[in-house]
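Let's practice the habit of predicting before peeking. Look at the sequence and jot down your guess about where helices and strands might fall. Then scroll down.
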Amino acid sequence: PTITSGVPASGSARDFTNPVTYTITAEGGATKAYTVTVTVRGRYQGLLASTYDDTFGTAFLNPIATLLAVPPSGTVLQGADIAYPAIFGFSSAFPGLTSDDTFAVLWEGWFDVTKDGPGEYTFGTESDDGSVVYIDLDEDGDYDDPGLGELVVDSNLDQAPTVKTGTVLLEMDMARIAIAFYENGGGQAMTARFKA
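Done guessing? Here is the structure:
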């Protein structure tokens, strides 16, 4: 296959402020157009919510790397609180979900420690079914350091709405955070909060 249109000269900059379309031509002459849209998200612009249709269960949330390895079915930038009451219609509110059962949602972003200053923070979830909160405490770009306590909240099981909290010492200015939730059937709810 060859890219036959939309290709910039080698080494030239590309402007992705608007969607860019590339046309691919196969050896047999068939063509297909692909449109690329880039959304730039800064540290202070909310959480990136990724949805995973028909992906659910405890194995996807711990370790979180398992869920991160799955291509999301949809993504959306979320600036509002994670506060979805019982029997919330996730499939109508989040792109990429076809049902209100058997799915997962992962919110990733940055937690601004400078707002309340360094110290102990308590994070919590109330979820039906499972939920977790991870903080990248050693700032190495992942959440896979169990000896450091990067899994701050572990409420990872099929359950009725259940509150779970965890406390962690944050001394950096910004901390990467991942909050994940899965729904395995029946009612569904997810709320995440913190307290300095």
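How did you do? The longest strand covers residues 103-112.
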